Amino acid sequence: MGMPITVEIVGAGEPRTLEETFAYFEMVDARFSPFKAESEVSALNRGDVAGGSESSEMREVLALAEDTRAETLGFFEIRRPDGTFDPSGLVKGWAIRNAARLIARAGYADYFVEAGGDIQCAGRNAAALPWRIGIRHPFDIRQSIKTLQPGDAGVATSGTSIRGQHIYDPHDPGRTLDEVVSITVVAADIYDADRFATAAFAMGRAGIGFIDSIPGLEGYAVDRTGMATMTRGFKRYVAHA
After folding, report:
1. How far is Cα 105 from Cα 115, in angstroms, rounded to an integer?
2. Domain span at residue 203?
3. Degrees (nearest 5) of the Cα angle 54, 188, 148?
4. For residue range 61-106, what is the model confidence (pLDDT) as tens digits?
5. What's the CA gap between 106 and 133, in Å, rounded?
């Protein structure tokens, strides 16, 4: 869906696993991209797919999106203000999670899967060290504002520094989301990190408190003045030199 993908499998002697992983991402892109006229999402938006005839993957994503909408007090919504569907805010983390599971089922314990800046990692890198992940500085993307050592976890960031204003508040679609410029969420599963980061960003200043209220999630938010706020347990993920 118009984003770079990086996969690193430590000790991967069988190239088939990498090939299968990228083939999976290609399938997800072909089915869920709102930018491709031949995708199932585009067909749904044109009304070319009758209700009940969606693919099993599409039905799963639509159900997960509805669950997420309920879990986030309506701040996560895959329907755009114009009424069309765009499940990208959920599909990315879902696809990374599924790709990571594919790699794990192949017998690998040390890997890193990244798509569009969202990451699932496990084990250690090729130097036998814990994976380290930088949070891009929202006011200078050439720099990192924090370096994390998340362990076996997912890390997702929502913000405006790369893609501009692409998230909206479903409760007030016309409101400009400019109180917070970046929010990073760490969770055991990238699927949770991604979807809750998106919802928290839509909440504005209240988003970091929302993340702090959910067991298993930690977050780090930067507002438009450069002030950072973190959840109570976030420090344990911050790498030390």
Report:
1. 20
2. 5-237
3. 125
4. 999 999 999 999 999 999 988 989 999 989 999 999 999 999 999 9
5. 24
Q: Which residue has the tokens 């089915």?
A: 31
Assess contact for 194 and 96: CB atoms under 8 A: yes
The count of structural domains within the chain is 1
Contacts 24+ apart (CB under 8 A), 127-131: none
Distance CA 235, CA 218 (A): 9
CATH number of the domain that residue 83 is part of: 3.10.520.10
**Alpha helices of 33-87 — where are they, by DSSP H?**
40-46, 56-71
Dihedrals φ, ψ of 136, to 5°?
-60, 140
User: pTM score, two decimals?
Assistant: 0.94
The angle at the Cα of 185, spanning 31 to 169, to the nearest 5 degrees, equals 65
Which residue matches tokens 């007030």?
172
